[in-house]
Structure to design on (230 residues):
DNA sequence: CCAACTGTATTACCCGTATAATACACCCGT
DNA sequence: ACGGGTGTATTATACGGGTAATACAGTTGG
């Protein structure tokens, strides 16, 4: 979980990636707040904040006392995947252009650093 | 000055880019703290923090009462350029790999989004 | 049934970032 | 020389992110 953006956003993004790739599908159980926070070594409140956001976005469903689970349609999952991919690409391209390199130079740099 | 990292770091990075590209060279005067802060619409203390960092890195020189100016060797400027470029590329590649795309797919996506 | 686990909520605290308002010592051009 | 601009410093305030400790209501499985 490397990165400097807020932890709770890293968690939501990570789960969205799993949803986008199909590793997490509708009906799948999620680790409890306490469980995941212990595993990640962060505060339960931080995980709760992430789960709350995901619930507000309609991606997961929670009931008091019971475990939370993924709750979305296939179309929604696919749309999430497209959105994440596009955002990632756009950000990478913006960053690459800012270096002042040409497209060809940038591409060959990316190829050189890929492994 | 778009981005979500601390403003004072955005300022140092921006000035380092100008140094790396040669638009700012040894001896060049910098805008005063108050001037730049007014132009950017941020607090003078924030600019001061950025300038202080740059001075600690030995990139600029300040004297009480007088304007600050760029102070570095050509080798240092070139080294900064290399370091920035490498960091940018590495970050972009990391981000691209995380999407799960293959190298070829990533490259064609970058080409498609370049303009 | 009931103990263990779950989601939820609240309160307090810390740290980094950023703003705001001053104040002071210093340089420089007119 | 002197006034305006400069670097520098200090204090206070605010906010978001994160931690910590605790409490309560609800579900669930043995």
């Amino acid at each position: 979980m490397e990165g400097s953006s807020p932890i709770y956003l890293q968690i939501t993004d990570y789960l969205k990636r799993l949803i986008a790739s199909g590793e997490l599908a509708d009906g799948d159980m999620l680790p409890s707040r306490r469980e995941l926070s212990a595993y990640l070594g962060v505060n339960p409140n931080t995980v709760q904040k992430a789960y709350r956001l995901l619930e507000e976005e309609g991606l997961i469903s929670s009931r008091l006392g019971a475990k939370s689970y993924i709750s979305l349609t296939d179309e929604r999952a696919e749309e999430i995947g497209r959105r994440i991919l596009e955002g990632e690409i756009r950000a990478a391209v913006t960053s690459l252009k800012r270096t002042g390199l040409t497209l060809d130079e940038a591409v060959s740099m990316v190829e050189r650093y890929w492994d």
